[in-house]
Design a protein that fits this description.
The structure holds 2 protein chains of 2 kinds.
Chain A: E1 4-6, H1 11-26, H2 30-36, H3 49-61, H4 70-88, H5 91-94, H6 97-105, H7 121-134, H8 141-155, H9 162-168, H10 173-179, H11 184-196, H12 203-215, H13 220-232, H14 244-252, H15 257-266, H16 282-301, E2 307-309, H17 319-331, E3 335-340, E4 345-351, H18 362-396
Antiparallel strand pairs in A: 2-4, 3-4
Helix pairs in contact in A: 1-2, 1-4, 3-4, 4-7, 7-8, 16-17
Chain B: E1 28-32, H1 33-43, E2 55-62, E3 68-77, E4 79-82, E5 85-88, H2 90-103, E6 108-114, H3 121-131, E7 143-151, E8 154-166, E9 189-194, E10 196-199, H4 203-214, H5 223-251, H6 254-257, H7 260-272, H8 283-324
Parallel strand pairs in B: 1-3, 1-10, 6-7
Antiparallel strand pairs in B: 2-3, 2-6, 4-5, 7-8, 8-9
Classes of the chains: A mainly alpha, B alpha/beta.
Chain lengths: 397, 325
């Protein structure tokens, strides 16, 4: 399953090939000669393996690789990785020289058009990817690599789209960290670092947070981080995050303004004031909370009726404003229905309910049971009609 | 649904091919079930104890940006392995591919498959063969699909792994260019695993497969009554599922209903079920709609049959007239 190196050359040839690459960049032949000195009398026998490894490391770290172009870098790095694995085994990776070199080479500024051949952050990411796949699943170095990947994504000023990380790491992160023997503190720390990288506050990351908090307990600081993420997100209905662990922490954090705001928001209450920390997102949060408040009204009254006139809905002052609110709710997928502007009515067909742990959900269970029985009876009716039609056809034949 | 994978794949590795495509993005590989069955059928001929190497060509479509490969079919290519050397029947590969290409104009050679226990120099040699030359994956990078089902001389459940051969050493400097005398052999690769997804056929194929599974084909009935029987089966299946959910909900204790899994179920049901099946409650209306629909279908079938009979009659009359003259 892991990455496999297949090299059709003797080890000495590969060592000298690396020497030629570094010398080619530096326009000397000093490095090749220093490598050659580690072989006994021009043969393939290595005089001192440890010293040879040290010389290779010196070629890597002394700006040997950083001057290569983006296209040349990865293949040269693969060669170094192969040599280190052959000479020093996985110990050669765990000592951190190669990992640190990659971090040092990673560009922190976006390359100008003149430097378009220079090494890119995604190439560094690809090198980390190869190292990760070479290591066994229980290697603790895998934890370091994940830390460095997050560091690089963080300092690379958006040159690494979060989608790359979420698709490649998202669903596997916890299982990899667990297999590598990471402690609970390390797992939590890395997971929240990963979440912080998502500047789009996407639905996929919300799903990962939900799965994570179902397994691991949530501290007040972590709950606040989740609250900030969810409130900034474009996703309106975030009640799916409210599992037993998160809800307990939010309910116990009565002193935290942010936690209480988040709880009120998820229950569909209109938010009129937001803390300073969220001032930039104030309008966004207020408008989301208005939509959720409307959804809550429909969910509470849906059992008794499905056709609502504008006058029946509370806080409708401006009809145009209300219609925009309805359309936003339909766009967000929290309600479904038909709007009749002429008659000023809304015909509701489906509405999301806010299911929150540690709350009384009996009514919601009853509503689901009732709907399921309705569907069952309707299906029996359809089956009867279908059977009648089939019998008619058979008789006609 | 996301599946946990032991492989990390963030970015497509650097590969040596003129049409390697966009770097800096992840690569996706889809394998169609028909291709999986084809590959399994071929590699199962690797008879123990000789353990003879079986290889073949993977066919399908790829995007120009080099980020998506879709394996749709495969065929076997005979090879003869003696010690470290291997000979591939290149002519057979070429003829089979050209034959395939006649029926599938938009498909290409994507790479090759094998079933070795470990990746070694011979793997690199075969990969090199598929990476260069006409009627092969060139100018795009070649894929390698390894189906491992023999471990330590025993047969196990097949394990599929797809690889791209990343470059190693100086070869990237000599990236092949189109034109004369530009081909250089490079048998050194980092076989980098790339996650793949085995994709099912279309929904129509699935319906047909389910229908075949029932093994009760009533040849005397008309097409419409067959369709109706299928509809009844599906309705019964949905009703059984509803019963199963209701049983689960009704048998769970109040505490159990508050655990995270049940809350997820409640969320899913509350947010995905339409509150009321409005039209479906009105039996008379439903019956009328369904009857009208059936009458339409019968009318179309009748007209089709009439037109078909007329065409056959004209054909027969023409041929009789020709005979008389």
């Amino acid at each position: 399953m892991a990455s496999v190196f297949v090299v059709d050359a003797e080890l000495k040839d590969s060592v000298l090939e690396f020497g030629a690459i570094v010398d080619g960049v530096n326009e000397t032949n000093d490095f090749s000669q220093s490598l050659q000195a580690h072989f006994v009398n021009e043969s393939s026998e290595i005089s001192d393996k440890d010293e040879l490894v040290k010389t290779i490391y010196s070629g890597v770290s002394n700006e040997g690789l950083s001057k290569l172009s983006d296209k040349e870098f990865e293949s040269a790095f693969n060669l170094v990785l192969y040599l280190v694995l052959q000479l020093d085994g996985s110990k050669g990776i765990s000592n951190g020289v190669l990992i640190q070199t990659l971090v040092d080479i990673n560009p922190v500024k976006q390359a100008s058009l003149r430097d378009r051949r220079s090494i890119k952050s995604t190439t560094i990411l690809s090198c980390f990817n190869t190292i990760f796949n070479v290591l066994p699943a229980n290697s603790a170095t895998r934890i370091t690599i994940l830390e460095k990947i997050f560091y690089i994504a963080n300092v690379s000023q958006g040159s690494i789209p979060f989608k790359l990380l979420s698709e490649g790491l998202g669903s596997n992160l916890i299982s990899w960290l667990t297999s590598a023997g990471a402690s609970e503190t390390q797992i939590k720390s890395l997971f929240y670092q990963f979440v912080a990288l998502d500047q789009q506050y996407s639905l996929e990351t919300l799903g990962l947070i939900k799965n994570f908090t179902q397994i691991y307990t949530v501290s007040e600081t972590e709950a606040e981080q989740i609250a900030l993420f969810a409130l900034k997100s474009e996703t309106m209905d975030v009640s799916s995050l409210f599992n037993n662990n998160l809800t307990s922490t939010l309910k116990n954090s009565s002193s935290s303004e942010l936690c209480q705001l988040f709880l009120s928001y998820a229950k569909g209450q209109v938010i009129k004031h937001v803390p300073e920390l969220l001032e930039l997102y104030a309008e966004h949060i207020k408008s989301k909370s208005r939509v959720l408040n409307l959804v809550k009204f429909f969910a509470d009254n849906e059992a008794s009726k499905s056709k609502f006139t504008y006058s029946e809905i509370p806080d409708v002052v401006d009809h145009l404003d209300f219609e925009i609110l309805l359309i936003n709710a339909i766009k967000a997928g929290v309600i479904e229905g038909k709007l009749n502007q002429v008659e000023q009515t809304f015909y509701l067909t489906k509405v999301n309910r806010f299911i929150i742990a540690k709350e009384d959900n009996t009514q919601n269970w009853e509503a689901v049971k009732k709907t399921l029985y309705n569907w069952k009876n309707a299906l029996i009716n359809i089956n009867q009609v279908v059977n009648e039609a089939r019998e008619n056809i058979v008789q006609q034949n | 649904m996301t599946v946990e994978s032991p492989i990390m794949h963030l970015v497509k590795p650097s590969v040596s091919a003129p049409m390697a495509g966009t770097a800096g993005s992840a690569c996706k590989i889809k394998i169609h079930t028909s291709a999986v069955l084809q590959v399994l059928e071929i590699v199962s001929k690797q008879v123990l104890p000789e353990n003879k190497r079986m290889i073949g060509t993977l066919l399908g479509i790829r995007l120009d940006d080099g980020l998506l490969f879709e394996i749709k079919d495969a065929f076997m290519v005979p090879c003869n392995e003696t010690g470290d050397s291997i000979a591939i029947e290149e002519e057979t590969h070429r003829k089979l591919y050209q034959l395939y290409k006649k029926a599938h104009l938009k498909e290409h050679v994507l790479g090759w498959f094998g079933s070795s226990e470990q990746i070694d120099n011979t793997t690199a040699l075969i990969h090199d063969f598929y990476s260069h030359g006409t009627d092969r994956a060139y100018p795009s990078p070649a894929l390698h699909l390894n189906v491992q089902y023999i471990k330590d001389g025993e047969v196990h459940v097949p394990e599929f792994t797809t690889y791209l051969g990343a470059v190693i050493g100086k070869s990237a400097n000599n990236t092949q260019k189109m034109g004369w005398k530009t081909v250089s052999n490079n048998n050194s690769y980092v076989f980098t695993p790339i996650p793949h997804a085995i994709v099912d056929g279309s929904s129509t194929e699935q319906i047909a497969a389910n229908f075949l599974k029932t093994k009760t084909v009533n040849v005397d009935s008309t097409q419409l009554s067959l369709d109706l029987s299928f509809l009844t089966t599906q309705l019964n299946a949905v009703t059984d599922n509803i019963d199963a959910i209701l049983n689960r909900v009704e048998s769970a204790s109040l505490d159990a209903l508050q655990n995270d899994d049940n809350l997820d179920l409640l969320r899913l049901l509350s947010n995905s079920l339409l509150s009321k099946p409005q039209i479906l409650d009105d039996m008379e209306e439903l019956r009328r709609h369904f009857h009208n629909h059936n009458q339409d279908v019968i009318m179309i079938e009748y007209l089709t049959k009439a037109v078909k009979e007329q065409i056959e009659l004209i054909a027969k009359a023409t041929s009789d007239a020709d005979k008389k003259h």
